[in-house]
Structures are given as structure tokens and as C-alpha cells.
Amino acid sequence: MLQYQTIPVTPFAQNCSIVWCDETRKAAIIDPGGDLDTLQKTVGKLGITLEQIWLTHAHIDHAGGTAELAERLNLPIVGPHTGDQFWIDRLADQSRMFNFPLSRPFTPTRWLNDGDTVSIGNSTLNVRHCPGHTPGHVVFHSPEAKRAFVGDVLFAGSIGRTDFPGGDFDTLIDSIKQRLWPMGNDTVFIPGHGPESSFGEERKRNPYVRDLQF
């Protein structure tokens, strides 16, 4: 069964998640935006082996530590979708703009597309391309664990910003309703910021995507 622990990192309190297979103890880290020493200490305490970096998108608070962590531990970088090449190329500019430690661009070992899968140990997660916040945003879904790691697509009571370059409100709403809701109302999602919630709860109460027929 897939296990995970979420650690807020960077001044933006971005939810970096460490996910692992409890049978093999093999692990991946989702969106290592920064605070790499803290993340590595957590991995050590958990007694797991970090083997991959998975990215939902390439905004600085999610991807800022990627190049350094990949270099430190010789890890492959998986994701996001090629639509976020623009944001990867601008990581150094993003660092300066938001007063983050200098980050550098990288080339993903593997780009992701809608319908792909990623695996760690005996756990496999489905990949859905969910543009709107950024053009190349992806989401990782574990049907087995009924968990989805959604980055900045959806939050408890809110949705991702669409005013950055490449963002689009209508596209984001469509991604949520067409790509996330079919995962099931009882699926718990881990957002890029803030507390967890379920898709059913957001369909009931989230003012941006509430289903009045629900």
C-alpha cells in the first residue's frame, strides 16, 4: 500500500510529499521546492530509499530544489508535462522575483502525458494532465490508496491561480471537473498548499466548482 508524509517547505508553505511503497520501502518525492536538508532528514528518519523526483508543475515553490536534489542523490526527474518548459527555463528568474535561493533549470528524465503511470516499488499511480494553473500541470492519483496529489489545481475551498503566464480559468475548471471528479468523491487530495480535503467535499462546498446537483 502507498504511504506518504507531507512536509511544508519554502516561505510559501508548499506541501512537498514523500510517498513510498510500504512493502519495498522505495520512495519518491513530489515537488521538492526547497528546504532540501529537512527533506533528506525526514527520508532518513522514515527509513526509506528515495529513488525518484516527481513534479506536478514548475513554479519555483514546487520545483525550486529539483536540480540540486537530483544532483545530490543522482535521482531521475519525472514530470511535469512539456507544457511547463517555459517555467523550467525561467526558474532562475522566478528565484529572483520571489527572493528564493537561486534555482537552476533542468531537463526532466521523463516528461509526463495524460494517461501515463508512475511507479515506486509495488505502488503505481495514474497521471492526469490538468492544465489551467500552468499549461503542463499534472496530478498523481493512487486508486489503491484513494489519494491524489494535485499540486495547485485544487485547494480546500479554493482553486489554483490562473493569472500567471499560461494560466486559464476555464481550462482549470474543466480540468477539475473532467479529470479530478471521476477519481471518486471519497478520494482525499493533497493540495500544493493548505489542508487536505476530499473531492466530494469540494463538490459540495467549494464556491468555484460546487455542483448544485450534488
Explained architecture:
Helices cover 26% and strands 28% of the residues. It is α+β, with helices and mostly antiparallel strands and 214 residues long. It has one domain: Metallo-beta-lactamase, Chain A, CATH 3.60.15. β6 and β7 form a beta hairpin. The mean pLDDT is 97. Residues 13-193 form the Metallo-beta-lactamase domain.
- Please identify, by name, the CATH architecture: 4-Layer Sandwich
Give helix % range: 25-40%
The overall pLDDT, averaged over residues, is 97
Poorly predicted spans: none
Can you count the helices? 7
Per DSSP E runs of 2 or more residues, the count of β-strands stands at 13
- What is the molecular shape? globular
CATH superfamily: Ribonuclease Z/Hydroxyacylglutathione hydrolase-like
Largest sheet: 6 strands, mixed
Structural class: alpha+beta
- At the fold tier of CATH, the topology name is Metallo-beta-lactamase, Chain A
The separation of the N and C termini measures 31 Å
Strand arrangement in the largest pleated sheet: 6-7-8-9-12-13
User: What percent of residues are in strands?
Assistant: 25-35%
The total domain count is: 1
The H/E string reads EEEHEHHEHHEEEEEEHEEH
Summarize the structure.
The chain is α+β, with helices and mostly antiparallel strands and 214 residues long.
Topology (SSEs and partners):
Blueprint: E1 2-9, E2 14-21, E3 26-30, H1 36-46, E4 49-54, H2 60-63, H3 66-73, E5 77-78, H4 85-89, H5 91-98, E6 117-120, E7 123-129, E8 138-142, E9 147-151, E10 154-155, E11 158-159, H6 169-180, E12 188-191, E13 197-198, H7 199-205
Parallel strand pairs: 3-4, 4-5, 9-12
Antiparallel strand pairs: 1-2, 2-3, 6-7, 7-8, 8-9, 10-11, 12-13
